[in-house]
Amino acid sequence: MSLPTLNDYVILEKIGTGSYATVHRAVKKGGNREVVAIKCVDSTTLSKSAIDNLLTEINLLKILKHENIVSMKDFFWHEGRIYIVMEYCDGGDLSSFIKRKSQLPETVCRKFLQQLALALRYLRSHNVCHMDLKPQNLLLTRKPVLTLKVGDFGFAQYLSTSESKFAIRGSPLYMAPEILLRHEYDARVDLWSVGVIMYECLFGKAPYSSSSLEELAEKIKSCKPIEIPKGCYVSPECKNLLMSLLKHDPNERLSFDDFFAHEFLDLAYAPIEENNEKAITLIQSAVKADTEGNIQEAFHLYCEALRYFIPQLTNEADHNKKKHLRMRVNEYINRAEKLKLMCMESSSLTESNSQNNDKLRQLCSTGRRGILQSTSLPYQELRILSKSTTDMASALEMGEVGEQYLAERNYDLALEKLKACLGMLVPLINKEPPGRRRELLNQQIQIWMKQAESTKGLLATKAVNDSPRESKHPQDQCLLQ
What we know:
The chain has helices spanning 48-63, 94-101, 106-125, 177-180, 189-203, 213-221, 236-245, 256-260, 273-291, 295-315, 319-354, 358-365, 377-385, 390-407, 411-431, 436-460; strands at 9-17, 21-28, 35-42, 72-78, 81-87, 128-129, 138-141, 147-150, 157-158. The protein is globular, with a radius of gyration of 27 Å. Helices cover 51% and strands 11% of the residues.
């Protein structure tokens, strides 16, 4: 297809070719000479199903307006051709990005997945299933920061998790098993595609890379186990999400709600406007508690606010805004650390007054004190009551170790131990009969849950001092600033 001639645009170059369309970079005449992408389709060559797909895409793009979805600016017919004027994404697509990098660090993968998840959450709120998620359809813009945007809605459908379809849609390598095997399917097919994209980001190839469709189908039919490539390491949270998405049986696959809530994505603290408002509210509450002398509550509130502020800081592109936000964040970090020390000193004094014995002083000297409450009298009572239950006693000991690491500012290990401890205690309390031990156990679980959340806030502060490495490719810059 030759370059089209349009009255309102200057066509610059062809930047992509699809099964029934070409995409051109163009500049709008007059005004600010906005750069756009124009999808050009020869309508005379389209089948009825292709026309239906195109009309569905246009109708969807009229409605879908989200930061992580490529926006449609205009569309029109001219001399037998259909033109869709789209937002121009100057960073290429995710497929090219992965090929250039070979494989992406887990932190970068999380960044892209978080943005993809925000787009999917928006699509689910409109009951839309994309049906063709793949790296080639995930476009990147470089300014103000490197941002992923979902594009190409040619196969998209209004489809819920309760409706079923049979038609083959999508690209085989990223197609859910239930589609490829011509079984009934629903909106959960998008989650499988996300899993394949995640795998390719992390390891540079799809889990079922094949030389032919037949070979791919055979691997799918045999339910060949998907494994982490030898020599590659990912965190437990990352591996859990990946394997939960890549379940052959959609009934065993992660649900959309669980996907959006998964701790690897940390979507609840994503750098979006509503979370900025939450951060401000938390800081106001922290300052109020601090002023009133409620130092433990102030500490937890500052830590929780930092979990919102730091992703915003790393995502901020404006130099002046970033500098101002960094100063504020540093103030909050310093205050949280001071409050933590104040809590330790205050509790240490209380304990020495209430139990002046060598064992307690020894515990205090090792750092298990203050906001770290494993030496409190209720806790000691709980330890005595738990001696007859081996699992509970082991979990409590693990929690103490977590507190020790927290006192020593070893936040990674502190969080690991606290999470492991809670993972054992929460199931136990559900089986615990009413009584004094259940009451004490519930109190301790709440304390450690709060400590775990605060530790996540303190752990996030490590990103403040991380300086972005120089990149040979301008489009890679700002990704993790």
